[in-house]
Design goal:
The protein has twelve helices and no strands. With about 290 residues, the protein is mostly helical.
Length: about 290
Amino acid sequence: MKLIIILICLAVERFLAFGPKIRCFKCVEPYMNLGKVWMEKLPVWFGFAAVVWLIPFVIVVGLLEWILGCFWYGILGLLFSLAILFYCLGPKELFQTVKSYQKALKSKDEDKAREVANELMEECPHDAAAVPGAVSTEILVGANQRIFTVLFWFMVGGAAAAVFYRMLCQLKPLAKQAKAEKSGDFYKYAPCVAVAFDWIPARITAFFYSLLGYFTASFPIWRKLVLSGFDKSKMILRDCGLQSLSIDPKSSDPVDPKVVGQSLDLVDRTLIVYLVIVAVLVLVLHLA
C-alpha cells in the first residue's frame, strides 16, 4: 500500500505543479500560539515546548490513519495517507520551478531567471554568474528536505511521522521570529529537532548522489562527513552532489548553467533508486 501511495504522490509532484497551490500551513501559527499560552509557563520543557505541543496533533493523524485503514478494505486509510503524504511534500514546488528557470536561461531572459531563482531559494546571489551554482546547490539540498526526508519518515512511521517532520520544518520561521523578538523559549529547540530528523535521510541521499555520479571523487567526501554532526547535513548533500557532477564544491569559479539540468537529473536518478528500494522492502516484508 505504501508503495502505491508513494508512486502516486511522486508522479503528481514530479509532473504536475498544483501542489503548492493547495498546501497551506496558515493553521500552524494559531495552533502553536494556543500551545504557547498553555505551556510557556512550564519551565520543565526546557525549550522543547513547541515540539511537545505538536505531539497531540501527530497522535490524532496516526489514529485516523489506523482507524480509516480498518474500513472498506483499507481504501479509506490509503486515501488518507495519500493526501497526507502529498500535503507534506514540498511545500514549494521543485521540479517545475527548475524547468521554468531553465526555460528562462534558454531564452536569455535574465530578469525572469532571477525571479524564478528567488522563488526557489531563500537568498539569491546578487552576482548573475553565481546564480546557476546557487540553484544547483538548492536542487541537491532542497530535494532532500522537500522529498527524500519526507519519504524516509513516511516509510518509517507512516503519515504521522511525515506530518511531524513537515510541521517541525514549518516551525523554523516562527522560531526565527521569536528569537528576533526575544519572546521566550517556546520555539527554542524546534529547529534543532528538525535538523536532527534530517540527519539519516541526508546521508542516505548523499550516498546515492555519490553512487549515481562520479563515485571515486564523491565517495571520499561522503565517508569523511557521514558521521559528522547535525549541522553538516546540508554540507554533505551539497559537496557529494556537486562532486558527483565533477564540480569542485570548494571552487569559486562560476558554474556552467548546464549543471542545473544535471543536478535535476541526479535527483531524478536518486528518486528512482529510492522507489526501487521501497519496492524491494515491500516485497520482502510481504513474503516474510
